[in-house]
Amino acid sequence: MTTTEFGHSPFKSDSSPSNMCGFTLMNNQVGVVVAEVMAGKPNVRVLPLPSMIRVDASGRMDVVYDEVSEALGEEPGYFDAAQFEESMSTHYGRMIHEDDRTIMFANPEDAAEYIGFDLTAGSR
Question: N or C: which end of the chain has fewer CB atoms below 10 A?
Answer without folding.
Answer: C
